[in-house]
Amino acid sequence: MDYQQIVFVGSGALLQRALQFWHRRLSIPVLVILTGTDAIPPIRDFGFETYRGNPNKLLPTLLPTQLPNLIFSLNNRFVFTDATLEENWSFYNIHGAITESYRGFAEICVLAALLENNTKYGVTLHKVIPFQEVDQGPIVDVIDWPLTQKEDFSSLMMQVQKHCFQIFVDNVQAVLDGSVTHRIAVSTNQTESRLCGYSNVAEILAAAPCESLFSRTTLGPFVQHFPKLAQSIALEQSKRDGRCSCRQSHHVNWK
Question: Does the domain formed by 5-196 have CATH 3.40.50.12230?
Answer without folding.
Answer: yes
